[in-house]
Each structure stands twice: as C-alpha cells, then as structure tokens.
Amino acid sequence: MDLPDETRSGLLADTRAGDNSPPLTVAELAGSVKRVIEDAFGRVRVRGEISGFKRHSSGHCYFSLKDESACVDAVIWRSSAGALAFRPEDGADVIATGKMTTYPGRSKYQLVVERLELAGEGALMALLERRRKALAAEGLFDAARKRRLPFLPRLIGVVTSPTGAVIRDILHRLEDRFPTNVVLWPVPVQGEGAAPKIAAAIRGFAALDRKPDLLIVARGGGSIEDLWAFNEEEVVRAAAESPIPLISAVGHETDTTLIDYAADLRAPTPTAAAEIAVPVRAELAAGLEELGRRAQHCVSRKTDRWRERLELTVCRWPQPEALFAPAVRRVDEVGNRLPRALSARASHARADLNGVAPRLRPALLSERVIRASEKLLSLWRLAEVAHPERPLSRGFVRVTDRKGATLTRSADAIAAGTLALHFADGTVDAVAGSKERQVQPVERKQRPSYVSRQPGLFDEAGE
Asked: Rounded to whole angstroms, how far apart are CA atoms 460 and 456?
C-alpha cells in the first residue's frame, strides 16, 4: 500500500544520505503505521467465515475472518457484543462492519467489529441447520420431553410484544372461547438484544410464586432475519428447560424456528395457539348436557330392564298358600294331638306319684331332719372353737398394725410403730417402743364383741 504524501514527508523530513540520518523510535514507527491504517480504513465491510470464536470473561469477543487465501484477526468489544442480533459461531458466513487498527505491542493489525450480520439467507439457513443438528444431538428436541398441555388452564402466561397485534389476537380469541386469566411478559420480538429478553421472560415465569399453568411464546410473521431471535440457542434452551408446558406460536404456518422444536407444542399462528390453549365453553356446556341426557337414558333403560327381570322372577315363584300349606297342616295336627298328650302325661305322673307315696312316711322324714340338725350343730360348735377372737375371752390379746395385719414378732411390732391391741371387749391403740420400754396406751375405742353364741338351728325360741 502506498503511504500518503504527508505521511511520507513526515517520516523522511530529517533523513539524509549517509549514516548520520536520525533514526525513528519503534513507538514512533508503530504510531505512524497505526494512524495511516486507521485513516485509510476507518470504515470497512468485510465478508468472511468466522474461525476460532471465543468470548472472554470480560465480555469481549475474539475471532478471525478468513476466506480461501487470507485471514484477518477481529475483535468485538463488550459494548458492541451485547447488541449483536445473533450468537456468532465458527463456520458462519458473515459480513463484519467496523474499522481497521493495529496493536503496536505485537505488530499486528485487526478489525474492530461494530456490527455483524449473516451474509444472506443461504448463510442463515446453513447456520440454522448446523445449530438445529447440534441441539438435537443433545436431546432437546426429543419427543419424550414433550408434555401434555393442561385441559383448562386457569392462568396463561404470554411472552410477546405488548404493542403488536399478536397479544390482541390472543386475548380476543381466549375471550371468545373460554375467558381466563392472562399475564403478559412484554419483550421485543426482533432486533438486537431480543433473544436474551425472551429467554429471561420464559425463565422469569418459571420463577414466579404463582406459576402459570401454560406459556405461549408468540410473534407475527416476518423474514428469517426478523424471526432470528427465536433461533438463538439461549431461547431454545430456556424453552426446553421450562417447567411450565409451552406453546410456540412464532410466525405464520410456513415459518419454522428452533423454538418450535423445543416447545411442547407448535401452533401455526398466535390465534391458533389461543384456540389450542383453551376449549370452547359453549361446547363444553353442550357436551355436559348431552352426557347428562345419555346418563339419564342409561339409568332409565337399566331400571326398566331390572323391573322386567323382577316381574319374570316373581311370576315363577309359587303361590304363598301352596308354599305354606304343609307347615299349616303340621301345626293343625300338633294342635289336635296336644290335649291328648297332656292328659296322658298327667296320668303317667299321677301313677309315678302313687308308686312312691307309700315310702314317704313322716317318721322317715323326721329321722333324716334330726340327723342333719345334729351334724350342722357339731360343725357350728367347731367353728366357734376355731374362731380367732375366741382366745381373747380368756385374757389373750391380738396385736395388729394399721392395715389390720396380725403381728406375731416383737421386731415387726417395733417396725410398725403404731399398733392396735384387740381385747375381748374392744380395741386399744398403742405405740411400740424398744424391747425394754412398756407399751403406752394411746386411745381406747369401743367395738362390739366378735365372740357371741350363735343360736342353734333347732333351739327353741326364747332360749
């Protein structure tokens, strides 16, 4: 490249023939080259294939643009990287707009990219197909991941533009079919920065305390460039990871984006998404009414069938007179025989009594009674002798503790402490001391004597 005349004159102003010409410093030379390149290439558009794309943690992006015979280093600063309309990938055919500059520290030149766009629809379709295959290989589009939509969602979340016709069409269709609650998360649906906001909206609905029962991600039709935000990887991943069933309604029926593959169901249009989301309330009411009529008809037919079977069964039963006739006849026969049986039984009992009457003499009965009385009297006298209170009348004393247990040892009496002394005519409370001390009476209680003579069974009255 020929240098401008003013630059050339500045570099050679002090240069003379011979070894005494003043040298330039490296910084001066590098700075002059930088100014020349930036002035000559202050605004360029370069088409090439992305290679070695890397996004640094600082947010800057570094890559190369190459074709069949050359390669140019390129950089996208963080301020411009956030406004890209798509995510750059290796192999993408792009057109980069920016300016050329140099990096004096490494003697390198590079293209500072301010805007990056795909080079035509063919390049977009090629990039789209590569991305689709890569995401499909991860299983994000598997049919096993698809979930059944709720039959009648009480709350529907919609991710779309708040100013377009899409949201109005959805709300109008829901109102016609089955009015329900709708929450709108407004997002831009095309252009730079649309994809991150759409992905954030999908994840934001999943983070709400009261989550919607169904999500609809929608926008109207447009070119592939207009719909490109819904082909971005972050949007597709957010749709695939959503815990809420999701309907994709992007574009018209012929438009297809990657979010359609990741969604649980694809609707051809936003209006169709509203029709899929809820049933028709009038049809449900009519269906319920029809089911009620059918159920009533089934019950009536079942009742009629049971009634017919009962009538047929009753017709086969025997008449009550014929059924109970044998039992009635047996009762009559037993009733006729009963007076004769009672008379015969009384005659037999009278004969038995007459047979044993001679042996029932009064003397025999008196003798048996006397023997029984004597035996009972002997047993009574023996009981009086063995009674525990009997020795008390002869001067003995029975010692018990508070619970009434009889004490027979002095150690038990001392351990009990308070004693009861039972005499023939009453009880005296006492306190036990040591063996050398005498028992001191505490209180005297009168009680009836347990020793009294029980009159004999055959004692005469008044004895």
From this structure: 9
Neighbours of 170 (CB within 10 A): 24
What is the CB neighbour count within 10 angstroms for residue 285?
10
CA atoms of 31 and 103, how far apart (whole Å): 10
As a whole number of angstroms, the distance between CA 232 and CA 229 comes to: 5
Instruction: Please check whether residue 87 is in contact with residue 233, taking contact to mean a CB–CB distance below 8 angstroms.
Output: yes
Q: Encode 268-280: b = buried (16+ Cβ within 10 Å), e = exposed.
A: ebbbbbbbbbbee
pTM of model > 0.90: no
DSSP reduced 3-state for 107 = coil
Strand segments (E) across 119-241 = 155-160, 181-186, 214-219
Contact by Cβ (8 Å): 81, 55: yes
Q: How far apart, in Å, are the Cα atoms of 189 and each of 192, 226, 248, 254, 275?
A: 10, 8, 13, 18, 22
pLDDT in tens, 93-146: 888 999 998 887 777 889 999 888 877 666 677 788 888 999 999 999 999 999
